[in-house]
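Q: I have 295 residues here and want to know how they pack in 3D. Can you give me a structure?
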Amino acid sequence: LRAIPSVTAYMDTARNVRQQVAEEGIPRRGAEAARRAIDDWGKPASSLTHIVFATTSTGCLPSADVVLIKLLGLPLSTKRVMLYQSGCFGGTTALRVAKDIAESNRDARVLVVTSEVMSLIIRGPSESHVGNLVAQAACGDAAGAAVVGCCRHPSSTGERPVFQLVRASQDVIPGTDDAVVVKVQQEGVVITMHRDVPLHVSNAIGGVVKSTFHEIDMKITSYNEAFWLLHAGGRGIVDGVEERLGLGGEKLAATREVMRQYGNTRSSTIFLAMEEMKRRSEERGMATAGEGLEW
């Protein structure tokens, strides 16, 4: 920013500089997160069969997943899926894709990686476009990773599952086409966020959660009987979901801590929340990474 101060002007067109920062930073950050995930997994990287990489911060070729396998020293024949422009749900989408791959290939071990570098949204403030400033204030850089596999008897392979993916679903809330709008323009990526985004999410969350518990045939008397990992999209969203579901003050503590430390890191947020919950559960000597709960 000191070298090219014009980047901080609202309508500056120095997109090349911002793009270079993202292109170099995304695979590098992703590789750092991937190495930690592989270390936690406890198996050699050569045992990985697939990679699913998600980012909303760039969209170039060669793609970030190609650069990643080279940084990790993986075979060029490693099967890859690259997810660009999935937004804040990119992390959970990547996990869903990995789940589908693992269930279809019993011996598959899928490395899921997300990485976000917000250089393309950096610009000065504008009185006529306050929403763009909100997005910059809320978002931050981060990367996350996890290894996903399908194994009926983990002890036989020496693996130790931390979380289990039971069901995955996706939906669109009607009437929200203008809720979050992202456009690639001359001056970079311009984000417009409607003030009613928290209201849209909180109004819809009850039906989504009810449907999910019904599909897995789980009967509970209170949503406090389950553990919760929520995307840290902003305080209004987190507060709204907590109120609508009637959750206790500590049920979203991991999400709030991630939001406090890192902000909204788009696709990487869910991995930061998983790691924070796992850390808290281990510190308290709980039986599972989900605050001692099975669900």
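Q: Anything worth noting?
A: The two ends are 46 Å apart (CA to CA). The chain has eight helices and six strands.
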